[in-house]
Amino acid sequence: MIRRTIRKSGNLVLFFTVVLLCGGCVAKTMYYWGEYEDIVYDMYMTPGKADPLTQIEKLTKDIQRAEKEKKPVPPGIYMHLGMIYAMEGNFALAKNAFEEEKRRYPESTVLINRLQSNMNIREQK
Amino acid sequence: MNWIFSNRLNPIFILFGLLIIVLTGCVGPPAPYDYSNLIASNPTSILVIPPRNNSMEVNAPYIFLSTITKPLVEKGYYVFPVSVIDTFFKENGMQTTDDMNSVPLDKIREIIKPDAVLYADIEKWGQEYQIISSKGIVKYSFRLLDGETGALLWNGKAKAVATSGDGGGGIAGLLVSAVVDQVMSSVLDPTVNLSRSAHERSINHLTQGLLSGPYKKEPNK
Predict the structure, then answer these.
(1) CB pairs under 8 A between A and B
(2) CA dist., res. A78 & res. A106, Å (int)
(3) Is B57 strand, coil or helix?
(4) 3-state DSSP call for residue B165?
(5) How much is the pTM?
């Protein structure tokens, strides 16, 4: 009876140890975040590090990595990328990025349509 | 001593009982948040308005914006990209976050149509100097409103304080600063992690936190 109790409590200790150790692990995220937070920080705090070409390079790399890791691209990334392409005058790639955002996240539709029409006006100038 | 127990309605027992009730009320945890509006609204998309700033750090709203997206999205919501929103406001004549906070809800609905809008007021951001020490602190209040009706869905105060030793200062901080070019700028700014803590604590609070949104999936174990 005592031996059984000791074995059971031993298993319990092992269980909680494993749980505690795993609690120290980095929490898994639903999405692939890559360098997005750093990009946004740099845009406002150290703009020299977040020029359009650097942003395009980092974001497109992140999108590729997300695909490799089979994790979705977070909400807003494609829209942000579209904004950067539009700033660079690359309206075709901007349009593609905006379409990607709309396709993945239909709740972005109203704003995307607005950004798209603003861009068309700029393109015609 | 028998007289104490002889009368069940003895005032001593009544007083004692009241004392217990009052004390338990005083030290008990706050009631959980009333989520009835949030549940009725059931928002999917959240628009974060660049926050009002009453702190000493002029860049506080933008550091806030750089860390607010991830915890909200990971909670299961669609969040409009903060830089696009900020740029859009600026291109339309709103230069300060105070201006942006003054945009009426029907205008926001017309242009962006978010299910919910998050407003925040930053109270403290950065080093708070005391007599012989300083502490890093991030403190803000927030409210989430229904995009259609303006009803209050969720609100509260968020706060994170750096305990001495991990505020990013001191000799260790100076040594790290020497490697500036190679290191992410955000790593050198202690308010970045403080803001992350503040967001996490309010969003994921057990009884006052934000309910999970429609995109929330439990991670594969």
Answers:
(1) 105
(2) 13
(3) coil
(4) coil
(5) 0.81
Q: Convert the pLDDT of each residue in B117-161 to its tens digit.
A: 999 999 999 988 777 777 899 999 999 999 999 999 999 999 999
Apex B114 CA angle, A87 and B217, nearest 5: 100
The verdict on a CB contact (< 8 Å) between A30 and B215 is yes
Of all residues in chain B, the one with the smallest CA distance to A117 is B111
Interatomic CA distance for residues A88 and A82, integer angstroms: 10
CB under 8 A, 24+ apart: contacts of A56-61? A56/A81, A56/A84, A56/A85, A56/A88, A58/A34, A59/A34, A59/A35, A59/A84, A61/A34
**Of residues B78, B86, B67, the one with CA closest to residue A38:** B67
Residues of B in contact with A37 (CB under 8 A): 66-67, 69-70, 186
DSSP secondary structure string, B173-194? HHHHHTTGGGS-GGGG-HHHHH
Burial-class residue B134 by CB neighbours within 10 Å (0-12, 13-18, 19+): middle
Per-residue buried b or exposed e for B197-207, using 16+ beta carbons within 10 Å of the residue's own CB? bbbbbbbeeee
